[in-house]
C-alpha cells in the first residue's frame, strides 16, 4: 500500500559559522534526496528559514519506513534531534524526488 508523509527534520551540524550554514543547507537536503533515490521514494524536500529540512515522501509503507529511519539518523555531519511526521494525501503520477527552494 502506498503512503505519503510530510516530515520536518530538526537537528544540528557539527561545524561552526559559515561552514555550518553551508553544510546544513547542502548536506541535509541532498542526503535526503540521495536516500529517496536509493529507495525509489518520490516527493520533495527543502531547507527552511529556521534551519530545518521539510518535505513530503511517497512510497510503499515498507520502503517509507526504511527511508524515514535513514532520515531519523541523518547525514554524518549532522545530529538529528527530532523528526516530525504527518500523513498526507497520495499524489498520483509523481515520478521523482526533488530538492526545491
Automatic annotation (TrEMBL):
One Pfam family this sequence matches: Acylphosphatase
Transmembrane regions: none
Cross-referenced Gene3D superfamilies: 3.30.70.100
Domain Acylphosphatase-like span(s) in chain numbering: 4-101
Origin: domain of life: Eukaryota
InterPro entries linked: Acylphosphatase-like_dom, Acylphosphatase-like_dom_sf
Protein family per UniProt: Belongs to the acylphosphatase family.
Name of the protein this chain belongs to: Acylphosphatase-like domain-containing protein
Species per Swiss-Prot/TrEMBL record: Fusarium oligoseptatum
Amino acid at each position: 500500500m502506498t503512503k505519503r508523509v510530510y516530515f520536518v527534520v530538526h537537528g544540528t551540524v557539527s561545524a561552526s559559522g559559515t561552514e555550518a550554514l553551508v553544510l546544513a543547507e547542502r548536506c541535509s537536503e541532498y542526503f535526503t534526496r540521495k536516500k529517496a533515490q536509493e529507495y525509489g521514494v518520490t516527493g520533495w524536500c527543502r531547507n527552511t528559514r529556521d534551519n530545518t529540512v521539510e518535505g513530503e515522501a511517497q512510497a510503499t509503507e515498507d520502503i517509507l519506513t526504511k527511508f524515514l529511519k535513514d532520515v531519523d539518523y541523518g547525514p554524518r555531519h549532522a545530529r538529528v534531534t527530532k523528526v516530525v511526521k504527518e500523513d498526507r494525501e497520495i499524489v498520483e503520477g509523481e515520478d521523482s524526488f526533488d530538492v526545491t527552494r
